[in-house]
What does this fold into?
Amino acid sequence: MSDTLPYCHAVATAGSERLDACLGGGDIPLVFSPGPHVLILGGTGEGAALARALDGRARVTSSLAGRTRRPAALAGVVRTGGFGGAAGLARYLREQHIDRLVDATHPFAARISANAREAAERAGVPRLAVERPMWRRQPGDRWICVADAAAAATALAGLPDAVFLTLGPGDLDAFTGLGGRRFVLRRIDPGPSPLPDATVVLARGPFDLSAERDLFNDYGIGTLVTRASGGAATEAKILAARECDMPVVMIRRPPPEPGPRVSSVEEAVAWALSGALSSAGSGSS
Ligand SMILES: NC(=O)c1ccc[n+]([C@@H]2O[C@H](COP(=O)([O-])OP(=O)(O)OC[C@H]3O[C@@H](n4cnc5c(N)ncnc54)[C@H](OP(=O)(O)O)[C@@H]3O)[C@@H](O)[C@H]2O)c1
It folds into this structure.
């Protein structure tokens, strides 16, 4: 429908009522917006930047999982919480008359990305993924690349203390019971440590190089364990480790979902507004 009608969005309406309202009939209040209704699956810096860039040019709804207690403010409308799997997300896409879906989730948030692909297919909504660029390994880097958190824990044998773990909460179980190790974690929200006896540093990114150097010095960090998340916002820890020749245990990314993807917010903005990828921005599918 949104391909043949001018974009307009009826508040609290659905189906043919919305069609009537868009054509001028009925007494349903209308909110006219200058572009398509874009749903951004976010919880990332890219998602926030995309919402900011589209605000005023499209009707923007950002979706957050609800893991962070006080998420940073976002432009546009924000909804929070799971959809109930791919079927629930497909229903949401239809009911909310979403015109375009952008998956700007974290590279390790594999479940929601799989759901996004399946839901977009079911609902017939165009989908684009924003793929965060990988960090580049430099000559001399002491990276030990592993498949998962359990392999990262095994790889620590013989590596220096203290160990700075920049992982998701779901990865930390693999590090329990490694006696004699000092672990340092960084978290956004206060609360009980997800890893007994670990030192918890409360901070919200992005982190610059001098902050990471200070943290490494203050806590005597000897080894970094991280996921290959990539992107500029969290790269400073990689640069700091490089500077002091520190071993880095790096958990590989899960493979991306098939389908169109871009590596910058600018390309995602252009796609969201036009529905097409330029040949330069078509990414790999
Ligand atoms: N993984 C990380 O390290 C990391 C780091 C920074 C930010 N984040 C952000 O935190 C969120 C959760 O990450 P995760 O690794 O737990 O994801 P996940 O394992 O891929 O997703 C688990 C479930 O959480 C819900 N969910 C995830 N992202 C959502 C979103 N943006 N909006 C609504 N529901 C969402 C979905 O529930 P239903 O099936 O019920 O829909 C999904 O099936 C993601 O949005 C991600 O961008 C994650």
Observations:
- The first helix runs from residue 15 to 22.
